[in-house]
Here is the input.
Amino acid sequence: MGQTIFQKIISNVTGIDKPEEGSIVFVEPHMILTHDNSAAISKNFKAIGAEKVWNPDKIFIALDHAVPPPDEKKALNHKIIREFVNEQGIKHFYDCGLGICHQLLPQEGHVIPGVVIFGSDSHTTSHGALGAAGIPIGRTEAASIWAIGKTWLRIPESIKISLDGKLSKNVFAKDVILSIIGDMHSDGASYKSVEFHGEGAQAFSISERLTISNMVAEMDGKAGIFPADKVTDAYLRSRVNEPYKKIQPDTDATYIQEKDFNLNEIVPVVSKPHNVDNVSPISELPEIEIDVGLLGTCTNGRVDDLTAAAKVLKGKKIKYGVRLLVYPASQAVLLEGMSTGVIQTLVEAGGELAVPGCGPCLGAYGGCLAPGETAISSANRNFKGRMGCKDDTAIYLGSPATVAASVIEGKIVAPPKEVF
Amino acid sequence: MKFKGRMWIFTDKNLNTDQIFPGKYTYDPLTPEQMAEHALEDYLPNFAKEVKKGDIIVAGQNFGSGSSREQAVKCLKFAGVSAVVGISFARIYYRNAINVAFPLVQCPEAVTYIFENQETLINEELTVDLSTGRVVIGDKSFSFPPLDGEALNIFTTGGLIEYTKKKISEK
Ligand code: SF4
Here is the structure.
């Protein structure tokens, strides 16, 4: 019987021939990702009684969630992390302002196809965009991996999603994954690995794949994988030197569920409050006034995302009274956006440019909503209170172009086709 | 391991980690006891004050969806909740619970029965027996598959910290 890509990745990294679904295996990650939560993890690490991390070259830490720190508690949190990094000689440390963990990990060449990436962050599924199994775990587990270099996994069943056809001009990868989640629901991939196939999937850039794999977390998937192909090679060429295997599933692999989506039929959509699977075409919404637009996050804060928004905003102004928050996903994105003029366009239109990082995505600080306010955001989660205030607030999720179009009008509208 | 306690009945689907433990506290260095003070703050603001040691949460589908934040498990454990009996749990939440040895029991039959008979059952105590895999309420008893394999090992050792300590000392 054929093997899914998850099974073949496990086989690649453990040497186990044909690992069975449902069986438990111990896996050493190619890289383990953590972020501002690393101080808490280091506490657990010490509680375990470990002295040295198992391999300082395989630990990746980015300070991204509260940057620059807005208060002394969060500043202390960062200080504890820097001390730990120095004490342990951790190799891949990215300090405040360099970017969001899920952006930096692939951007800096720390992800290759065919490996397992563990991350103490739910959106670690992102790294499936490069043909790896990016698997989210919790803090205690991250501490344990720092100490002994491996953890247990149950080999999941897999879901095969085929994407065919071609997107209309004002429809984006974000609309695709929101439509999939709307169809499959928030627990549609619980304990499962999701694979993306079809011409439509192959036509997506790495940035678009990152958007989609990122949000597999919102269907509770264990991983969301695009098999590596020439698009992957092109992305990795300037980033990694080490050899990798472009693992493909067997053609006769068995899937617990198979779904087909036709990209021609997907329209601009949003997730309505307060759950990601509450998806609706924008054309079917009543008039929804907004106070804030957020451009950024690990889902949609890359160059192509900001560029799409800039195309919509070029020569225009955001509506009086509305705010537009611009958080590039990394310093590299910011610099590229500056050199192409995209940042200039966004700021001229009225955008508030911020330090690369997570920002208001999780309501830790900066750009918080006030009671009664509504946001349109390019992020991945719209839970009540997510942007820092739960009193009568509402968060709608959409593509960066939808965010841009909406801040001009002051209400949620689909992006215009003409500018793309 | 057996627990008996009062019930908190939350019928919502997808009761998420931000409702269980708000994002704004996730990067403050808090002790487990301080985490407990914020348990379910954005969902049921009085919960942390009113919860009593040994209470059991009865939850709907996909409890704990969302973030990987472990505080969403720890805050309930340290608030005194002895177990959550649910229709289903989100993956990372379930894994985190095993790793901090907090019992989550997936028993949709029991939960559906409790949801449907809330009014008559609200003052009853619920019993959860992890060793035999049974949930008992009034004269009704329901079974669930107990943990096995590595998950059981981690749970019975007292969580992943204790488990890893043991692994290191065995080396
Ligand atoms: S941008 Fe938002 S979703 Fe992404 S890692 Fe940061 S807080 Fe999490």
About this structure: The longest helix of chain B spans residues 160-170. The mean pLDDT of chain B is 93. Residues A 65, 100-102, 121, 123, 297-298, 358, 361-362, 379-380 surround iron/sulfur cluster (CB under 6 Å).
